[in-house]
Amino acid sequence: MAPAWIGSAGGAIATAVSALVALRPSRLAERLAPLTTELEAEVHRRTAQFERDLEAEEVLMRYRQPLAAAAFDLQSRLYNILRMNFLEKFGEGHDRADEAQRTTLFRLAQYFGWTEILRRDIQFLSFPQAEETRRVAELQSEIAKGFLTDTYGPALMIWSDEQRGIGERMIVEEHGKVLCMGYATFREKCDDVFAPWHERLRNELPEEPVRARLSHVQHLLCELVETLDTDRVRYSQDLQRA
């Protein structure tokens, strides 16, 4: 018969071994806990980013056509001013001179209007990572800089707050939808609501340094239209760089 101490020692050893075996999963869990937390945080971050990107793409899809149309109309007028002598043909003294100025201001204000509508819907979604949506945002930023920079002198320099102000005045709500006012409504309000900008346009548009600003902006508008008109069937084929 084995001495009693041997049995006691064996029992103690067995208990210690069992404790160690039980401790290993516990320590392993402790070591894995930070990694698990980091993984969960990364999954949450990526899921949230994906949802924001998806929502930004949905916003862009909703306003793709009106923004493309506004950008196309503005670049077309700028091309006519720069290459087709629009101001000379319908300038001061012509019976349609005032209408030429109003329609030019309308196209400018319409672009700022749709830009402001898009900015309001997308500003809280963080900067999108989807390539197309990001490119649209970058081009809109570059167009805004083209108007606000003093590189081309003070003529037709429209600061970002002014751009937003013009855009805000263009926004209306019809049948529960937010959109830009049409030309008929704009014309009625032009001599009141838009009078300061109309006066600036009338005085500064004919100045020679303005041409460099307009040319730069027109090229960017063409690129924006091409980015929005992904099928290249509605506007892109009619684009011409000034």
Question: Would you write up a description of this structure?
Answer:
This protein has helices spanning 4-83, 86-89, 97-122, 131-148, 160-170, 183-190, 195-204, 210-228; strands spanning 171-174, 177-180. The protein has a two-stranded antiparallel ribbon. α1 packs antiparallel against α3. It has 242 residues and is mostly helical. It contains eight helices and two strands; from the N terminus they run αααααββααα. The protein has one domain (4-238). A hairpin with a 2-residue loop joins β1 (171-174) and β2. The termini are far apart.
Alpha-carbon distance between the two ends: 108 Å
What percentage of amino acids are in beta strands?
under 5%
The gross shape turns out to be elongated
Spans of at least 5 consecutive residues with low confidence: none
Q: Total strand count, please?
A: 2
Biggest sheet layout: 2 strands, antiparallel
Radius of gyration, CA atoms, in whole angstroms: 32 Å
Concise synopsis of the structure shown:
It contains eight helices and two strands; from the N terminus they run αααααββααα. The chain is mainly alpha-helical and 242 residues long. The chain has one domain.
Keywords:
2 strands; 8 helices; 73% helix; mainly alpha; 242 residues; single chain; elongated
Layout of strands and helices, then pairs:
Blueprint: H1 4-83, H2 86-89, H3 97-122, H4 131-148, H5 160-170, E1 171-174, E2 177-180, H6 183-190, H7 195-204, H8 210-228
Antiparallel strand pairs: 1-2
